[in-house]
Amino acid sequence: MGNLIYILFACIAGPLLLMLGVVDKKARPPLAYLLVGLFLALFASELNGVLANNLAVSYHTITTAVTPISEEVLKLIPVLFYATVFSDDRKTLLNISAAEGMGFAVLENTFILLQAPQSATILWALIRGFGTGLMHSLCALIVGIAISYVKKKRKLFYTGTFAALSAAIIYHAIFNSLVTSQYQYVGAVLPIVTYLVIVYFLKRQRKNKKL
Q: H helices of 20-89, where?
């Protein structure tokens, strides 16, 4: 099972990588960041394993206090890099951050499923897909939205970026705490509610721009 995540990464990332030379120029950044998300999930699995082996804490502490930090920091770096080096266009940052989160969630969910397929149920699939998977995308999206606002405001850039990262870490930790407790159904619903709020906010913003 140790090499399974590398096999999954190669199977999923291979065709996506080749498609970068085929798709339209505007579609390349989201596709590239979907690949970045896949790689980050691979890297995070190794990093979290090292942290779990070297920190004298319980599994619950690892999932609620360690992995939210490591994973959200990893997801922040590529989005921040794109905003700094290539473009801080708000629409593009939203697209790449959402794609990065989706890539991360796809590899993580697939790996966990193949580790213990006998324990998978419809409820498990719903929680992993609409809960954990959506949570990863939302955390990355929250950071992307924040950076798109603060990138042009130098006085707010560093504090705003740190605040966005902190919000993503806290949200991730709250979700992990809920889904590993007796309130797992609340945790499963939390990303869906957050998603609806963000969709409403973005649609209202686009509508106001058209007026």
A: 28-54, 59-61, 67-85
pLDDT 10s digits, 3-15: 888 898 999 999 9
Residue pair 71/44 in contact (Cβ under 8 Å)? The answer is yes
Q: Which residues contact 37 (CB under 8 A, 6 or more apart)?
A: 75, 99, 100, 101, 102, 103, 104, 105, 106, 107, 140
pLDDT tens digits, one per residue of 56-101: 888 888 999 999 999 999 999 999 999 999 988 888 999 999 999 9
* Amino acid 189: pLDDT: 92
Q: Which residues contact 170 (CB under 8 A, 6 or more apart)?
A: 68
Helix-helix angle 154-179:184-210, to 10 degrees: 150
For the CA atoms of 206, 207, 209, 210, the dihedral, rounded to the nearest 10 degrees, stands at 120
**What global pTM score does this model have?**
0.89
DSSP state of 131: I
Residue 55: partners with Cβ closer than 8 Å, 6 or more residues away? 61, 62, 66
